[in-house]
């Protein structure tokens, strides 16, 4: 009886070892694919135009603006306030598009990751491809425009600016 139990335990251990080996192979494949995707994403940009076609913004896949182009007639056809809104609009659209490109590039890896149990589910402390994927994908809520917490800075007149520099307010972070 003891031999039969030992043999059954060996068979279970062998099956578990094969499953873990398969998961490790999948994890390594996903890491390689992820490295390729990251390399492609590093070179990917998205662009968007404002609705008035005066501003074009280019953003990287993190949504960070890397270029802003103004049409030559922008200053003739718009006010500074409207132009500022156009810049913000184009930047937000470019960031959204960059997020979409990221999602599209990572979708195949996410599909594979969703089809297999995560290694950390079987072996506590083992690396998790799902955690790795979540760390690479930005939270959609973080793409929402930030709401200012403080009132807008007031405009300086020449006297205020002189006092600011004379009293070294710039060293104390005052504005």
Q: Please report the distance between the alpha carbons of the first and last residues.
A: 84 Å
Average pLDDT, to the nearest integer?
77
Helix content: 55-70%
Largest sheet: 3 strands, antiparallel
Q: Determine Rg (CA atoms, Å).
A: 27 Å
Strands across the major sheet, in which order? 1-2-3
Number of strands: 3
Note the run of SSEs as H and E. Answer: HEEEHHHHH
Broad structural category: mainly alpha
Strand portion: 5-15%
Structure annotation, total helices:
6
Low-confidence stretches: 140-158
Q: What gross morphology would you assign?
A: rod-shaped
Task: Describe this entry's structure for a reader.
With 175 residues, the chain is mainly alpha-helical. It is 58% helix and 10% strand. The protein has a 3-stranded antiparallel β-sheet with strand order 1-2-3. The longest helix has 41 residues. 13% of the residues are buried.
Can you give me a brief rundown of this structure?
With 175 residues, this protein is mainly α. Helices cover 58% and strands 10% of the residues. Strand 1 and strand 2 form a beta hairpin.
Sequence-ordered SSE layout with sheet pairings:
Layout: H1 2-42, E1 45-49, E2 55-60, E3 65-70, H2 74-77, H3 80-115, H4 119-122, H5 129-136, H6 158-166
Antiparallel strand pairs: 1-2, 2-3
Features:
3 strands; about 60% helix; mainly alpha; three-stranded antiparallel beta sheet; about 180 residues; about 10% strand
């Amino acid at each position: 009886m003891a031999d039969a139990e030992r043999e059954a335990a060996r068979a279970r251990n062998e099956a578990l070892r094969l499953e873990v080996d398969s998961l490790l192979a999948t994890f390594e494949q996903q890491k390689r694919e992820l490295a390729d995707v990251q390399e492609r994403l590093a070179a990917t940009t998205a662009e968007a135009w404002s609705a008035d076609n005066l501003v074009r913004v280019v953003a990287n896949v993190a949504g960070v603006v890397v270029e802003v182009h103004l049409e030559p007639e922008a200053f003739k056809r718009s006010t500074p306030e409207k132009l500022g809104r156009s810049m913000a609009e184009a930047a937000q659209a470019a960031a959204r598009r960059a997020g979409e490109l990221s999602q599209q590039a990572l979708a195949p890896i996410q599909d594979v990751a969703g089809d297999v149990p995560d290694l950390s589910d079987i072996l506590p402390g083992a690396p998790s491809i799902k955690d790795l994927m979540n760390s690479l994908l930005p939270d959609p809520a973080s793409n929402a425009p930030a709401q200012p917490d403080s009132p807008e800075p007031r405009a300086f007149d020449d006297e205020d600016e002189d006092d600011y520099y004379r009293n070294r307010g710039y060293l104390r972070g005052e504005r």
